[in-house]
């Protein structure tokens, strides 16, 4: 069974991710200049007038002004404000001489074929491919691995500008039909349709208002989750409540879909249905937030009289149903195992005393599990890099899968009956490479190598462990050209996330290669709040401990400076979503530590985040301003509320999108308004708002390239570096 975990977090750039198996899928120059050259003429910038309203909230006796509350509403006035801000930003970026050079080079190196690992369905092989600059990847089919691939589904035909993206693609058990999910403009709202796999024709079935779901087939239909249609006028910001599970039968209108499960007593719970590969069980996963903990329910689909019954009805730990062995469920859990273990549960006797441990917890974090060819394939994480161990169905270790070097592995899709599977391996300077794995023989063979137009051998990756404020050792990857001189002058890009149990592992980015080939340093620390060392590491950076994450990030910057990789005048700090909060806290707590900051789609208003779309799901991670003690903690680090009058903040380019309904753009709108009003002159404080784009998932290649060109141009401009002439730009 393919287990799909619904991401409700302020982070993941995809709405759903497959946990059982993955079937889806980026000459040295002289940069020495004087510090004077790095000073931009911010005084020449005229920011748009942003009105203030007299609005004050009372939080447990404390009066908190919210003068930009009006920016939370999507209307013509806000659209005009966005247009005015974008005009200032684009005029600033347009005056940078080398911006086109950067875009042209990015376009050049981006133009290479990108493949996803093949997966098999109904005897045929399927894989995703992007020829190079296509806005969306295309799904291909082939009868055998040697036969000519044919286009099976091309999402580029869904819109002229590439802003309609494929979000779900699930085959019926017999391979006859495909449930197709799409989203428009980057929204989390999905529309589901049904395609005849033989003809490619779309049937009349059309399902609206699907969100945080995935289609799970059963007989001649599928289970899915949706909300009621939102009220008109602000559908991208309305709070999402009362998630429901439905069953849709092919050939019937959505109005006839059968309601399978709802919880009328708890508006803020989400439910996702999944079926086992043999369609014996329906599994319902229930969540109260994005902490990862979930409840688990089941229904025996072979018994017409069966009802939905609980296996675990609390929200204290994580339970991920990997597969079923007959009438038992194979479950990955962190119950009494913060680094996860595999247990076999009889749903008729679900008490923990009856669980059978198949694979116990180890020293490393069990990150993913699949069942292929009668084997259990478990991916582990050791210091944020992958290891793969193969077990039999009783948990006896049989083999380890040989990997090329330190990096990240994904894949191993397939059914129990299959004897082969595929996986993708990548690292910072190792482009995604696909391998075929023969399960019975434990043989790994190269299937498809990615060819890129950069010299990846020119760079080296190291992992260091630095000390955070409270003495905790934190790992960090550092990538740069071989033989780099540590003299404190290297432009450095520091990127992190730090939350929601998300692990930051080595991965290839073609955009990063432009930075590296121009002598830059790329650094990625594994902050607390992530999942790199299991649930204990996660909890050390959530709710009352959130400041630990910011301290870890600050310490990473201090390490890079003290060890002469860079200086504060050559340091750029970036992060997105929960990472945008991270950058916002960094710049308001230590504004002198970096020259450039790039908070993207960030959670900036920590007092009101839970009032929009799925923001309530982040309360377990952050806390809530509705609670007096948690309010005090949130108020201390909320980026919006910690901008001080007259402080010179780093050169700032806030990035967001008008269709972001995960972290609504009002966070960024209010933050930049406060910064432009209070920040001292000397550096630019800009906002870049993508139009017809969302939180990041499904963004067309053309928009991604332009965003990176603007990002690097802004960084180099404010560091006083021209990457192509080696001369300062100080217009």
From TrEMBL:
- Alphabetical list of Gene3D superfamilies matching this protein: alpha/beta hydrolase, Prolyl oligopeptidase, N-terminal domain
In Gene Ontology terms, what is a biological process of this protein? proteolysis
Does this entry carry the keyword Signal?
A: yes
Which Pfam family name is an example for this entry? Peptidase_S9
| Domain Peptidase S9 prolyl oligopeptidase catalytic per the UniProt entry, residue ranges | 508-720
Q: Which UniProt keywords apply?
A: Hydrolase, Protease, Serine protease, Signal
* Catalytic class of the enzyme: hydrolase
Q: What is its EC number?
A: 3.4.21.26
Q: Tell me the GO molecular function terms.
A: oligopeptidase activity; serine-type endopeptidase activity
Cellular component (GO) terms are:
cytosol
PROSITE patterns reported in the protein's UniProt record: PRO_ENDOPEP_SER (PS00708), PROKAR_LIPOPROTEIN (PS51257)
Q: What does this protein do?
A: Cleaves peptide bonds on the C-terminal side of prolyl residues within peptides that are up to approximately 30 amino acids long. Has an absolute requirement for an X-Pro bond in the trans configuration immediately preceding the Pro-Y scissible bond.
Q: Which family, according to the similarity comment?
A: Belongs to the peptidase S9A family.
- The entry's protein name is prolyl oligopeptidase
* Species name: Pontibacter burrus
